[in-house]
Amino acid sequence: MPASFKKFKAWRKDFLARHPHRSFRLSRRRDYVRPLQLPGYIAFTHFVNKTVWSNRKLLLGLALIYLVLFAILIGVGSQETYSALTDSLKEATTSITGGDLSQVGLAGMLFLTIATTGVISAPTEAQQIYIVLLGLLVWLTTVWLLRNRMAGHKVRLRDGLYNAGAPIVPLFLVSLVLIVQMIPVLLAVIGFQAATSSGLLDGGVEAMLFWIAAGLLGLLSVFWATSTVFAMVIATLPGMYPMKALRNAGDLVLGRRVRVLLRWAWMFLVIMLAWAIVLIPLILLDQWLKSIWPAFGGVPVIPVIVSVLSTMSVIWLSSYVYLLYRKVVDGSTR
Length: 334
What we know:
The chain is mostly helical. It has helices at 3-18, 29-32, 41-54, 56-73, 79-97, 103-117, 125-150, 157-163, 168-181, 183-198, 205-234, 242-253, 257-292, 301-332. The radius of gyration is 23 Å and the shape is globular. It starts with a helix and ends with a helix. 22% of the residues are buried.
């Protein structure tokens, strides 16, 4: 028997032993149920906030360095872009609602637009590379600092900046896998744009079939990405290879994928609520100051606040994912 066939046979046996589901065969509940003890959503969010607050000096220093590098390499959103966006939304809402939209409603629409598109013009190819590298380095440094602090080690921000970047190649490769897994969602978005322009979504069986296909494509990407996010944490371990990180992450969420997915949804909901609580009042204040003090119109208050919120969100998201990973690992061993 060829050595390659023996290797494939051993891999298949190991894979089937770790995965109880079989194609076209009813899976027994006793084979795939894996208990997992996790704190509640609010309790775990409080735990994340408490952990971030207890390490606030390190994480705030990291946020400041990241913010400065982002401003130097990519730039902060321009006030002109924000003003043009505000004027466009005012014109659009005036033509649709006849000018009946309140300032709070306009601020809410501005918030949704900024949260989805930002206030930075389309970045160049070099800026896109900088964004990816900075994001990976912030992820690595945050995980490295929290891992060592929770292990009882006294570390400085300098230690994290100098030592956390070692696994950047495995993390980058896992990130590429995550991007590939998002292709079904991208296809659904492209299909939605084509269907909208062609009138396919006006109604009928065609529209129903499109939404079914788009939903299935979205579920496929979500199914894959649920474990890959954990793989991005596992890839930061010393001596870890990308494929091994992906395999370990898949084993970790096996039978628990829905529960982990709900945690990801809750994480993004918390971030959006935090943005809304901070940004909407500041947009209203910015609009009021500009109405009574026209010279204030050139001050880029909202673009700077968006940059700060983006930086803090990346650090908080990294902390949430890492702490949830630890909870899942600890809950699996009980």
